Amino acid sequence: MSIPPPPGPHQPQDPYQPPQPQSPYPQDPFAPPPQTPTGQTPTGPGPYPQAPYPQAPYPQPPYGGVPYPVWGQGYSPYGRPSPVNGVAIAALVLGLLCFLPGVGLLLGIIALVQIKKRGERGKAMAVVGTVLSSVGLAVWVLALSTGGASDFWDGFKEGVTTDSSFTLAKGDCFDVPGETFDEDVYDVDEVACAGEHDAEVFATVPLSGDSFPGEDHVTDVADDKCYTLQDAYAMDPWAITDEVDIYYLTPTADSWSWGDREITCVFANVDERGTLTGSLRADATTLDPDQFEFLKAMAAVDDALFDEPEEYAEEDLASNRTWAGDTGEVTGNQADQLGSHLWGPDLDAPLAALVKDMRTASKEWAAAAKATDADAFYEHYDKAYKYVDGATTVTARKALGLATTVPSYDEDSDSGSAGTGGGDSDSGLDV
């Protein structure tokens, strides 16, 4: 009697053992066909007897299945979404902000090309950014072609700078907030010069440089320029009464950083609570030809008189003699200019009388220039000065329609000019 082999997965089928129930699961379609013990593949219907020994030690796959190949190499096994294209995001932002529409349009096109090649997301954002940038670009082109962009920028600047002391120009009249001038003047109200006003601008002095030059330097420039430029704006010094003073608005370190680069020279009342009425402007834009010719001649004589040496003749006779000679020459030349001008019928007589006195004064100045001592110098000096702003000058002014009140001369003023109304006062105001 033979001993059967030990049971196992590869034990031959016991012919006396009842048949095993068939698995409810279908046979694996990828399993190799069964073979007979002789190694031949059966052709008839099964079941077929298994070979007594395994062909090879094939490991069984888990769960009784056969391993399948991995499909879709390169894709995430967990199905993560593809990244969003960064250029599409930038195109959308520029499109929404209407900023650099040309750049936004270009980025939108680049994003669409990259999305198609890389399989990235963000197509909708790229399309929206492209459309918005196209609309913005069209609006900009239309604005530039019609001048709308320029009008917008001008309006913007006007809105920012209206009623600012930075915008004051020559000939403007204005009021300042409060009852008096403050040390810091930023906001002003421009008003008509015909009525009452706090101040009138007669000159602006530009400053150069990238950095603020300092308050002392700015004040020195203002003192030098403003008192000189007043004569070009107000050619009639007799119209500048003792109630009028010169002030100036100067940049500060803060306003310099905002672009403030000008000194603003203004006329204002010596009384901080006082006002001016009417414009003080007297130049070629407001004077008739006769008035202009007369004031130009008188200004030349005044300039010569204002150059009088500080030392008396007893201290420096030579300098005083030189000055007297120059003054006599200027006075004679201006007398010739006025004598050759064609005046109207009502002006001939008064201007002829003035020209006669000017020529007499010129001779006295010439005699003073030849004086051998101080006493002789002052003898001719006093005679010459009798004709300065004398009766014939007042008569000529009245005929010309100019101011007839002789101004008071400030002997303490550095320039000696008339009618500055307090040129030595601290008249610097910060802008």
Structural account:
The protein is α+β, with helices and mostly antiparallel strands and 431 residues long. Helices cover 41% and strands 8% of the residues. The protein has helices spanning 86-97, 101-118, 123-146, 148-161, 215-233, 253-257, 289-306, 317-340, 348-368, 374-385, 391-400; strands at residues 173-175, 189-191, 196-197, 199-206, 244-250, 262-269, 276-277, 428-430. A six-stranded mixed β-sheet has the order 2-1-4-6-5-8. Helix 9 runs antiparallel to helix 10 (374-385). The longest helix is centred in the N-terminal third of the chain and has 24 residues, at 123-146. The protein is elongated and about 110 Å long. The N and C termini lie far apart (130 Å). Mean pLDDT is 77; it is low at 68-79, 155-164 and 412-426.
The succession of helices and strands, N to C, reads HHHHEEEEHEHEEHHHHHE
Structural class: alpha+beta
Overall mean confidence score, pLDDT: 77
Strand composition percent: 5-15%
Radius of gyration: 52 Å
Largest sheet entry:
6 strands, mixed
User: Strand sequence of the main sheet, in spatial order?
Assistant: 2-1-4-6-5-8
Number of helices: 11
Rough outline? elongated
What is the number of E strands? 8
Low-confidence parts, pLDDT < 50 over ≥5 residues? 68-79, 155-164, 412-426
Notable traits:
41% helix, alpha+beta, two-stranded antiparallel sheet, 8 strands, six-stranded mixed beta sheet, elongated, 11 helices, 431 residues
Summarize the structure.
By secondary structure, the protein is an alpha+beta fold. It has eleven helices and eight strands.
